[in-house]
Design a protein that fits this description.
- This protein is about 10% helix and about 35% strand.
- By secondary structure, the chain is mainly β.
- A 4-stranded antiparallel sheet has the order 3-2-6-7, with no helix packed on it. It has a 3-stranded mixed sheet with strand order 4-1-9, with no helix packed on it. The chain has a two-stranded antiparallel ribbon with strand order 5-8.
- Strand 6 and strand 7 form a beta hairpin.
């Protein structure tokens, strides 16, 4: 019986042990913040056609993507609910954002039903595109989408007209 009890206790410690990173201290309940943003669009007559706007969201990444397959790193990015279309300006709020530095962020368009058919329409460029989400705080970002001057994708490639 003592051998069985010891085995069960050892198994319980093995299963729960790796989840503890602060000893006996409770996990930080405020390890999350929020991102609030304002997106300004223009020129309004240059909005993409409706059939090429499957989805539109603000996306903040902790890494610089090399291609759309990098979007599978779901634990290293956050995204807003769908944004409004054919408007001059829109706002969003993303709650429960993991704290840390985000290095590549902007408005992304899904241009076909293919899950990997995403491209940036406008990037956050203030402070060299970097911002930090801090514990229990709301980070505010503002960005502009210029439909006549879209950013290159992947970063570093030739800009798209």
């Amino acid at each position: 019986m003592p051998r069985l009890l010891g085995s069960l206790l050892g198994l319980a410690l093995l299963i729960t042990g790796p989840g503890c990173d602060a000893g006996l201290a409770p996990p930080d309940a405020n390890a999350f913040g929020a991102i609030r943003g304002v997106v300004t669009y223009g020129p309004l007559e240059a909005w993409p056609p409706a059939d090429s706007l499957q989805d539109l969201r603000f996306v903040a990444m902790r890494f610089i993507p090399r291609d759309t397959s990098d979007f599978l790193q779901l634990n290293r990015l956050v995204f807003s609910p769908g944004l409004d279309r054919n408007v001059a300006q829109d706002t969003f709020l993303i709650a429960d954002v993991p704290t840390g530095v985000y290095v590549y962020s902007g408005v992304a368009q899904q241009y076909s039903r293919d899950w990997f058919a995403w491209r940036p329409l406008g990037l956050y460029t203030d402070t060299d595109g970097l911002f930090e989400v801090q514990s229990a705080e709301t980070t505010v970002v503002q960005l502009t989408v210029n439909f006549r001057s879209l950013p290159p994708f992947p970063p570093g490639s030739t800009p798209r007209p």
